[in-house]
Write a structure and sequence with these properties.
By secondary structure, the chain is α/β, with parallel strands linked by helices. 28% of the residues lie in helices and 27% in strands. The chain is built from five helices and seven strands; from the N terminus they run E-H-E-E-E-H-E-H-E-H-E-H.
Length: 192
């Protein structure tokens, strides 16, 4: 039996959805996935009260403890696999495994807790993984100009930053398109 690429086997692209605790990662994966997403959420308990700060996300009642998984078929030849990462640092040991083979990442940012996305940004910068920052526009949260946010996050000039609503399928798709375009530019620059 010969091994190789078959026209019947689609190309798989692995994308990570990262960000701080409560930034909307699970929501985004669920909104854009064409199948019911796999979720590993557990109820927040009193035992975690001293560990997981709910400041700014007081209504949050569950948290991802391993990953979220979703899929989007772009064409018969192209499938995106989405892996939502856990937001708390005590689960970051999982990130290295999830990041293997990833084409790129979306870092979800919440302006109510903007500093919570810094570890995700640092992680992907250190790994050299192409990423975009998607500012999740929560109801009632203060809105900022993209230039202000880019400066506050100390992003390199080539890192895209976009606004999104993680609850909306089309908004999530637009973020993924921005990421794929950015990853293609980064890949083209590396091979040039």
């Amino acid at each position: 039996m010969a091994y190789g690429h078959s026209d019947d086997v689609p190309t798989a692209i692995k994308i990570l959805i990262a960000g701080g605790f409560g930034a909307g990662k699970t929501t985004m994966v669920g909104a854009v996935s064409e199948t019911g997403p796999l979720r590993t959420e557990e109820v927040l308990t009193e035992a975690g009260a001293g560990v997981d700060s709910l400041t700014g996300v007081e209504t949050k009642s569950t948290t991802t403890v391993a990953l979220d998984f979703g899929r989007i078929t772009i064409s018969p030849q192209l499938v995106l696999y989405l892996f939502g990462t856990p937001g708390q640092d005590r689960f970051w040991f999982i990130w290295d495994e999830l990041a293997l083979g990833a084409t790129g990442a979306v870092v979800l940012a919440d302006t109510r807790r903007l500093a919570d996305c810094f570890p995700s940004i640092d992680y992907f910068e250190r790994r050299g993984t192409p990423f975009v920052v998607a500012v999740n526009c929560f109801d009632g949260a203060r809105q900022y100009e993209l230039d202000e946010l880019k400066l506050a996050l100390n992003l390199e000039s080539d890192v895209p930053i976009v606004l999104c609503d993680a609850r909306q399928r089309q908004s999530g798709k637009d973020v993924l398109i921005a990421l794929l375009q950015h990853a293609a530019r980064v890949g083209a620059a590396v091979t040039a």
